[in-house]
Amino acid sequence: MSQRFLSIHDDCRQSSVPCEPSDRSRREFFGHISAAALAALVGVELSASDASAVPLTNISGAQGAANERTYPVPSADTVSIDREAEVILVRFHQQALAFNLACPHENTALRWRQEDGRFQCPRHGSKYQPDGTFISGRATRNLDRFAIRRDGDKLIVDVNRLYRSDQQKAEWDAAAVAL
Hints:
alpha+beta, Rieske Iron-sulfur Protein, single chain, 4-stranded antiparallel beta sheet, 5-stranded mixed beta sheet
């Protein structure tokens, strides 16, 4: 069994009950396999080691136009949370992305697990890569992305334009800014 597969199941390692392969759900297993296959197809692997150095910061975006929040372009890879606007702003692998703070499964606020380089829902354990791609858990889709654009040294997030990967794939894929 690979070390990468074991690292995804940290909940098992933290429990007092040993985790055998049979203890893992089929959904988690196939979720992991699907994420790995997708990464292989696009030629990119977003490993936990790449993201484990990404720090978490709290931010407060400035109110722009009626439905927009404005943030400075981060100078390095980071995860920033604007709790008031319920926006997660991520700079990772030369891209800026904006996500809804709520897990798409049951709208629980997500947490950034820096040591694992991923987002996790504290309620049911759904896990996501830094780019919002679903890894495993009870959720059935990627994190929802807000429309985002760059204006000079600012990122503009339209909090009224939220894209679901399962319903608006083209818009979800395009909701990123190359840096």
